[in-house]
Amino acid sequence: MQEGGAAVIVALENGDLATAPVSPSERTLLEFVELLTKHAYRATDADTDRLRAAGWTDPQIAEAVYITALFAFFNRVADAFGLEDPGYRELTAAGKTEGLPRRDMEPTSHQPVGAEEDRRS
Asked: Do 52 and 45 contact (CB within 8 A), yes or no?
């Protein structure tokens, strides 16, 4: 998803996964994340089997589940306390990044196995 950059972000922000410029394996993962977000109780073994068939490993699938769950948790806490969006995206777009999390601290790759060489070796 890192290659699509802004076009991916815009499509996903608009809820338009169908036209987001992502690879088939990434689309499979995002469809699973959408399922977890909207209807977690409907997730089945067949859904995780579909991810494995797309090349995702069990640790990568688990990470996607954990991240999805954390975002749901954070959103519910923010909603419960009436917290407002701090506007990090707007600050970054305006070049005001002092004090914001550093982008070089983010993971470099979340590709399914075989999509590219593992950079951690």
From this structure: no
| Domains in the chain: boundaries | 6-98
Give CB contacts under 8 A, 24+ apart, made by 37-40: 37/68, 37/71, 37/72
35, pLDDT greater than 60: yes
Its CATH class, for the domain covering 6-98, is mainly alpha
pLDDT at 55: 97
DSSP-derived secondary structure letter, 20: S
Amino acid (one-letter) located at 85: D
Q: What is the DSSP letter of 44?
A: -
What is the C-alpha to C-alpha distance for residues 62 and 36, in angstroms, rounded to an integer? 12
Whole-model pTM: value is: 0.70
Mean pLDDT of 49-58: 97
Among the listed residues 60, 59, 69, the one whose alpha carbon sits nearest the alpha carbon of residue 25: 60
Structure tokens given for 120:
């951690």
